[in-house]
Amino acid sequence: MGEFFDIAFVAGLIGATMRMATPIIFATLGEILSERAGVLNLGIEGIMLMGAMTGFLVSFTSGSIWLGVMAAAGVGMMLGLLMAVLAVYLGLSQHVSGLGITLFCTGLAMFIYRLHFGSPTVPPIIQPFKQITLPWLSKIPVIGPGLFTQYSLTYIAWLLIPVMSIMLYKTKVGLKIRTVGENPVVADTVGVNVTLTRTLCLVVGGALMGIGGAFLTLAHQNMFLIDVIGGRGWVAIA
């Protein structure tokens, strides 16, 4: 009996760890892409919060969870573009621009939420993502149930880790991105458009951050709270 509970505890711990890591993975990958291009995006916390709110709002009104995910990615892309305009095109301080976006998004997310839902005593909820069990793999002793009974976004997040690594370090696109980040003068000399590269990285990175935030309201929880991100964006930067 004790061994059974030990196995169940380990499986539950593994599963919970993978789920809790999911939003941080998305946010970290987005931040890595931005930093490799030479821009520190401190707007990550605000982008995740807007992704969480937008994903929840769109899912609530449309009834489609995946539409909420796409909306969160779209909002993240727009905020990434805003960061590019401020820090890349206008040449403003990356730190000030990023923190400004975070503060702006914090107020905007709460404003839009209350504009739509008011101040209800009981927060509105949605039907969240359901966990997907992979046959055969989930039957692996001890680790199987924890690793292979997860949300679809969790599988995607963990698969994106090697994909991002291969893209950055094994492809010409990754080489251009790293060159832009490490030595933009050299990159410009060999014909790489530094401004465009940084902009695209911020936009794609913003999409990943937005999805990371949406995971918290569409899977991990089924409601939006103003403190739903809980500092995960800063953890991703660290």
How far apart are the first and last residues' alpha carbons, in Å?
A: 41 Å
> How would you characterize the largest beta sheet?
2 strands, antiparallel
Shape: globular
Q: How many H/I helices?
A: 10
Described by its quaternary structure, the protein is single chain
Strand proportion, as a percent range, falls in under 5%
Side-by-side strand order of the widest sheet: 1-2
Can you write the helix and strand succession as a string?
HHHHEHEHHHHH
- Total individual domains: 1
Mean pLDDT equals 92
Unreliable residue runs: none
- What is the tally of beta strands? 2
Rg (C-alpha, Å): 19 Å
Helical content class: over 70%
Structural class of the secondary elements? mainly alpha
List keywords for this structure.
238 residues; mainly alpha; 2 strands; 74% helix; 2% strand
Describe this entry's structure for a reader.
- By secondary structure, the protein is an all-alpha fold.
- It has one domain.
- Helix content is about 75%, strand content about 0%.
- It has 10 helices and 2 strands; from the N terminus they run ααααβαβααααα.
- The protein has a two-stranded antiparallel ribbon with strand order 1-2.
- It is globular.
- The mean pLDDT is about 90.
Write a short abstract of this structure.
The chain has 238 residues and is mostly helical.
